[in-house]
């Protein structure tokens, strides 16, 4: 899903012409409150261009072939396909109902779309075009998506019914639901495929769930408003943003313990990580900025001005998502 090149390579190759066109890997930021995408120079740490997309672009996902980056526009019910390196718009796909969050199964057979506003989860088969296989009514407020390693199940958090749902992809049915507590949001499957990690945005912890046994095994305290995840790319550690506490925490997925916190003001949300794992970018939802974290120093070193309510972000030259 991500290309493994170094950030030093970006510094050597990054160039912008007078029109703001990027000729090497750009940091692509979704401004959910402005219906736009910011194209950011990650070396100069500044926005170089802004593109109009659909209403409420919240999340994004690279296609399995690596040729496109999908921006999901929840309120305008469509997808924009971008060049993953430059951010240039390739095409638009309409009539995709309420695509708030989306994810590809590990085997690249399925695309699962969580319809936050419409209380639905849609399962698409992948081919030359997206084919809707089934639309599932799953209240309330389907939010984030993860998968089992064998692509048998998709796991979806339900923010306003305080549950997670497991969807069996072979027949697109709801296999089970599990109560979680207040406002589950981000969800991640650990590398050993044993546990689900769930950011409890209405609480102050990450919930650890043994999904095969369908039981909670731990409440891992991180900070108020635990929300979304980004792996460190070493197969063991993962960051979680704590939106209310204004911190980002690093979790050891083997010991299920928190390692440390980094202060990030402005409601930290989605994250992206450089290929050398030394720079972490974090959207600051309430201050119209993207924070730049020096991972080694465990410190916020800069903030980049972007659009209103920045949410998802992506760079092609990034650390692995595992």
Which percent bin holds the helix content? under 10%
Structural class computed from helices and strand pairing: mainly beta
Shape: globular
Number of strands: 28
- Element order: H for helix, E for strand: HEEEEEEEEEEEEEEEEEEEEEEEEEEEE
Strand order of the largest sheet: 3-2-1-28
CATH C-level name of the domain at 1-96: Mainly Beta
Number of helices: 1
CATH architecture of the domain at 1-96: Beta Barrel
Q: Give the N-to-C terminal Cα separation.
A: 10 Å
Cα Rg: 18 Å
The chain-level mean pLDDT equals 93
Largest sheet: 4 strands, antiparallel
Which fold name is given in CATH as the topology of the domain at 1-96? Thrombin, subunit H
**Beta-strand percentage range:** over 45%
**Stretches where pLDDT falls below 50 for ≥5 residues?**
1-19
Outline the structure in words:
The protein is an all-beta fold. The protein has a domain at about 1-95: Thrombin, subunit H (Beta Barrel). The protein is about 0% helix and about 50% strand. It has one helix and 28 strands. The chain has one helix at about 5-15; strands at about 25-30, 35-40, 45-50, 55-60, 70-75, 80, 90-95, 100-105, 110-115, 120-125, 130-135, 140-145, 155-160, 165-170, 175-180, 185-190, 195-200, 205-210, 215-220, 225-230, 235-240, 245-250, 255-265, 270-275, 280-285, 290-295, 300-305, 310-315. The strands form seven sheets. Strands 3-2-1-28 form a four-stranded antiparallel sheet, with no helix packed on it. It has a four-stranded antiparallel sheet with strand order 4-5-6-7, with no helix packed on it. Strand 12 (about 140-145) and strand 13 form a beta hairpin. The longest helix has 7 residues, at about 5-15. Mean pLDDT is about 95; it is low at about 1-20.
